[in-house]
Amino acid sequence: MKRILQGLAVLTALGLVAAVLFPVFAKAREGSTRLSPEQRLSLQESEPSSRVLAQRAFRAERQEEWAEAERLYRQVLETAPNHEPTRLDLARVLEVSGKTEEALAAYRAIYGSGGGTRDTQSEAPWRTIPALKAARAADDEDLQKSVLAAITRRATPMIGDAPFAPGIPTSDQEIDALRQILLAREFFTGSSGVSAAAAALTEAQKLTPNDPLLPALLAWLARETGRPAEADLLWDQALRLSTEGSPLRRWIREQRAKLKA
């Protein structure tokens, strides 16, 4: 029994050390996020110090210490040069610190081959939004297409298996709305659930009220949570906004038929 208690004490101590070394960040600024599970897993394969450096870089970024964040992200890449999430983080820091051309070069290196490598494809789709904004600001249509291809691939399947193929945005509002759609998908597939997903979609609808995908997704969520009357009104709205013969309109009619079945 004494040995068992000693073993438990050791495990508890190790747990406390891990809690100190690997904190969880609860809040992220626009364009930033906590280390994702994919980031943590990928960094485990590199030097042990890479994890700590990445967390220090994240803290520096949150405090808008751009030079320090850039230095630390570059240090991570010295030991893990193919770690795509860190390359994205570095590109974002370069952009917000005014090094626009360097940031664009970094984004092109990541997405230029048609949407990134395996690591970027495992990243949360909404994390690509800074790259899309940078590409639009630079009027780089090829980069916008590459980033959108990556977003489409990572956000499939969409909520309810709805058709999802975002076009080149014509305004920052459209990009912000796209971010909310991607967040809604993440909320729906994660622990946040339907209410958080619906709230994100409602925010997107305020930004782009004529996008038929938004009432369509809200209708699907309403139907799945036992609100058929609300779903029916939203299907009507989605049909009015959608284009005849489009994949989305066909999907809307199929889903509405299920409601009436």
Helix content: 55-70%
CATH arch. level architecture of the largest domain: Alpha Horseshoe
Count the E strands: 0
Question: What's the mean pLDDT score?
Answer: 81
CATH topology of the largest domain: Serine Threonine Protein Phosphatase 5, Tetratricopeptide repeat
Please trace the helix and strand order, writing H or E for each element.
Answer: HHHHHHHHHHHHHH
Class by alpha and beta content? mainly alpha
CATH superfamily of the largest domain, please? Tetratricopeptide repeat domain
The major pleated sheet works out as: none
Number of domains: 2
Number of helices: 14
Instruction: Please report the distance between the alpha carbons of the first and last residues.
Output: 63 Å
Note poorly predicted spans: 1-33, 114-122
CATH class group of the largest domain: Mainly Alpha
Task: Using the alpha-carbon principal axes, give the shape.
Answer: elongated
Cα Rg: 21 Å
Tell me the strand percentage band: under 5%
Q: What would you say this structure looks like, in words?
A:
There is one protein chain. The chain is mostly helical. The chain has two domains: 21-154, Alpha Horseshoe (Serine Threonine Protein Phosphatase 5, Tetratricopeptide repeat), CATH 1.25.40; 161-261, Alpha Horseshoe (Serine Threonine Protein Phosphatase 5, Tetratricopeptide repeat), CATH 1.25.40.10. 69% of the residues lie in helices and 0% in strands. The chain contains 14 helices and no strands. The protein has helices spanning 2-21, 37-44, 49-62, 66-79, 84-96, 100-111, 118-121, 129-137, 141-154, 172-189, 193-207, 213-224, 228-241, 247-260. Helix 8 (129-137) runs antiparallel to helix 10 (172-189) and helix 11 runs antiparallel to helix 12. It is elongated.
